[in-house]
Amino acid sequence: MPDGGVPEGTSFLVGGGIGTQQTVTTSATAYAGATTLQVISFKAVASYPAATTTGVKSTSPDPLPDSRPGGGNIEPTLPQSHAHGDKVTQSIPSDSCRSDNCGDDKTLKITGISVTEVYDNLPFDLKISGRNIECRGDHKTRVSLGGVEIDPGDVSCDNAGDILHPNPPPTLKVHVHGLIDGIYDVALTNDTTGDTANSSSLPAPMQGLTIQDRVRVVAFSPSEVRTSAAFALTIAGSSFVPGAKVYLDNHELTGAAVQSDHSLKVNVPASWFASLPNSGNGEYTIVVKNPDGIKAFSDDTLLVHTGVDVLDFSPHAVYGQGDFTLTVAADGAV
Predict the structure, then answer these.
(1) Residue 275: exposed, middle, or buried by beta-carbon count in 10 A (0-12, 13-18, 19+)?
(2) Spatial separation of the C-alpha atoms in residues 149 and 114, rounded to whole Å
(3) φ and ψ at 38, to 5 degrees?
(4) Of 18, 237, 304, 333, which has the fewest Cβ atoms less than 10 A away?
(5) What sign does the dihedral 180-186-188-189 (CA atoms) show?
(6) What does the pLDDT look like over 118-132, one tens digit per residue?
(7) Are 200 and 207 in contact (CB under 8 A)?
(8) Are 182 and 259 contained in the same domain?
(9) Taking phi first (over 0 means left), then psi (-120 to 50 degrees means alpha), and beta for anything else, what does residue 38 get?
(10) Cα-atom radius of gyration of the chain, to the nearest Å?
């Protein structure tokens, strides 16, 4: 280190090979007596004379971000919507049997549940088929919903039988009193052996029971708006009622109407986004408000992007002479 220090702005030449020279500039004075010089910043100067160039070399990001097209909205297929009070039922197997006529396999099993979705909090009957179950007597199979045992008085045989059929298949019938919104597994317990069985082992959609009384937004289409033209926003969910209002964040869309398939639809004019900051470009939570004041919020957001953004490009740098291809990842390009 020179005795008088190194003034700010002093440059050093580092490296002597082609394409390796670097001009290093100090960003502060290095004082006399120091044993090292800390370089805060530098710029690389590469020189490739034509006579020694071996071809184009480049540095590129890998991978580039996904480009998303412009000129058309993204419109996913929506799931089924449900009216308040709907029940989704399933056909259950008819192979229920008691321990004394189930054969050698004495394992307690659930083979089906008759109701998988209920869109209110009112009482209903649930049928459960299985093997090695008992629907009557002192050793009646115990039933639990979401870990809470059902009163044995609410568990009975779906078919009590008659003179000609004194021992019908022992399908369980459970009278379910009003449940709060949630997802419940159905569990059985053998009163004699303590064996258990759970609906979670069944194929979909019989893996559990969904109770949904409140209004709910499940999905919507389009999920991305990529044109400034007018469009129709369709919302899938449950318990939408006439008079429901739709908002994007806190901006109301007027004219929402419940459709025959229980979805909610509202037309968005081309001029609607023009009054918002940034021409409406951004992300919005879908909000549905029923006349009773209860609101539902979408888990995902609606993306509005009617312009073009460059996300990244490749290559970032090119060294040498020759042709190369520039690839640009863009959002909204057509």
Answers:
(1) exposed
(2) 18
(3) -90, 120
(4) 18
(5) negative
(6) 999 999 999 999 999
(7) yes
(8) no
(9) beta
(10) 35
Which pTM was predicted? 0.71
CB atoms within 10 A of CB 105: 10
Q: What is the pLDDT of residue 238?
A: 98
Cα 83 to Cα 239: distance, rounded to the nearest angstrom:
5
> In the structure encoding, which two tokens stand for residue 200, read together?
């979670």
Q: Is residue 295 part of a domain?
A: yes
What is the tally of structural domains in the chain? 3
Q: Which residue shows structure tokens 């050698």?
A: 104
Domain co-membership, 259 together with 297: yes
CB neighbour burial string for 184-207, b if at least 16 within 10 angstroms, e if fewer = bbbbbbbeeeeeebebeebeeebb
Q: 232 is in which domain, residue-wise?
A: 216-304
Average per-residue pLDDT for the chain: 81
Pairing of strands 327-333, 68-69: parallel
| End-of-domain residue from the set 190, 211, 232 | 211
* Whether the predicted pLDDT of 86 surpasses 60: yes
Pairing of strands 251-253, 245-248: antiparallel
Question: 222: cis peptide before it, omega within 30°?
Answer: yes
3 within domain boundaries = no
Burial class for 222, CB neighbours closer than 10 Å (0-12, 13-18, 19+): buried
Q: How far apart are CA 51 and CA 231, in angstroms?
A: 60
In which band, very low, low, confident or very high, does the pLDDT at 69 lie, cut at 50, 70 and 90?
A: low
10: tokens are 């002093």
Q: What's the rounded Cα separation, in Å, for the pair 316 and 320?
A: 14
